[in-house]
Amino acid sequence: MAFNNKHKKPHLIFHSNVFTTLLFILAFTVPILFLILHTCTSSLCSSCVSNKVEAWSGDLRNAQFAWNRLPFPHVQSPPVVLKIAVFSRKWPIGAAPGGMERHAYTLHTALARRGHSVHVFTSPLVDNNRDHTGTPSSTSSNSPIIHCHEGEAGKWRYNKAWELFDEENRREPFDVIHSESVALPHSLARNLKNLAVSWHGIALESLQSSIYQDLTRNPNEPMSPAFNESLYGVVPKVLNEIRFFHNYNHHVAISDSCGEMLRDVYQIPRRRVHVILNGVDENGFRNDLSLGHEFRAKIGVPINGSLVLGVAGRLVKDKGHPLLYEAFSKLITKHPHVYLIVAGSGPWENRYKELGPRVQVLGSMSPSKLKAFYNAIDIFVNPTLRPQGLDLTLMEAMMSGKAVVASRFPSIKGSIVVNDEFGFMFSPNAGSLLEALEEVVREGPKRLAQRGKACQEYAASMFTASKMALAYERLFLCIKNDTFCVYP
Ligand SMILES: *[C@@H]1O[C@H](CO)[C@@H](O)[C@H](O)[C@H]1NC(C)=O
Ligand SMILES: *[C@@H]1O[C@H](CO)[C@@H](O)[C@H](O)[C@H]1NC(C)=O
Ligand SMILES: *[C@@H]1O[C@H](CO)[C@@H](O)[C@H](O)[C@H]1NC(C)=O
What's the pTM? Predict the structure, then answer.
């Protein structure tokens, strides 16, 4: 097509035409190719994912990609020891905590271990054996100092926490203040220049979530009054958030897509929006084939010749279990060698049990059992209908060397399944999930293991708790002193 043969021209001119065309093509494609490659290396776009993180340098406040993509040298001690205040509604001890509390705990114990002086302001701990109220407690010099305000266990009262903070801040001012979501309300946060807030889900994501959830309702199934109320309430919430979010100085988005929403819809100046993905404990989850075999043998799933899907988390409707239930019940009628292991408990436990011996419902699991669970499966399925934040289970599965099947949400597409090799995405409906699962079955365990290897490499470079801690440390240093904003 490039060689124009419509015009019949003298031989010589045709030749020179070809030559000019070639030159023309060359002159244009080379710079374009160069530009594409260059764009990839400088903006680290998600379409050219590689485990080797390309060289990038500049002011970190201009970075619109996740900081996790950058290597941070793991030097023994930080250049400056920071005094950090943390506002968290809850501080987990023992029992399985929610994502936000787990984030606070993982991050701030890591920062304290690196030598920073971390003070956590939180509600009275849910633990009846010890009196945590009043006097600050800390088990060793290298763990965070916990300040519980007085009152009922687990019931957050920000003004009480603020009093404790104020007292400590007067004694010796904090370098940085970190709020887990709105633990510190904007009325108190508005005057703090050295404040960063991590958003574990924003109202715009809740709106998407409501849409996905309602679309899974059957035509003759009535809408529950509570859901209707939340559906009608969510738009005013989005508007409200857009109006008050700018009162927080620095914003940490825990997914790339949330960062985009904060910049583009919430209109926060982009140099105040930083994307740092949450991390999971790299020692807790890793690839261990024999552990997986043992687990399969124990629960009676054949090691050879079978294909095992795994799902984990609370077994509730909005985590997409109705979709998986429907899709899997159809899948097993055609494929007798396919199994599903369910780790977690909740209302959908009994429905899964109806599906017979090829579904194993194992209840809530301890971290060590969970590690074996991930190793026992061929692929991890996360059918969630809630795009808020980012599900840690996806990261845990990838860290354990497993490919994933997940809802095609902007957060998952933008930060987790950023490469087709990492797994499969589906629209949040049972038909689309079934299609994805059929593809999984067609590929079989060998190919899935290959994909899992790619997942593991990516997860090890992006989703570790130590990477998250180093990225936050760098942000906090940058908040204290501009010179630390310049990377590397
Ligand atoms: C949902 O609530 C709105 C306003 O509160 C009301 O007008 C509507 O009829 C309700 N719809 C359903 C299905 O309950
Ligand atoms: C599974 O298959 C592999 C080779 O394909 C074989 O070495 C192994 O013994 C088999 N394990 C079981 C439990 O059948
Ligand atoms: C910031 O850090 C640089 C380099 O460590 C130092 O020279 C400078 O004095 C610091 N500025 C402030 C305001 O602390």
Answer: 0.85
